[in-house]
């Protein structure tokens, strides 16, 4: 399983801001910043939300690429 930092890094590389990720994960931007910096792994619920955001975004993108 990917770390919180990896999930956030991949989302940011694909155009997400820390603020947008925080909004979707229902946490503060400061929490996302700490997680991306590797200072904190975050709570289990936050990790689950990050994984869901990542899966939804990249899963949708993969489906679009297959359909093209």
UniProtKB/TrEMBL annotation:
Biological source species: Paraburkholderia bannensis
Stated name of the protein: Putative transcriptional regulator
Any GO MF annotation of the entry: DNA binding
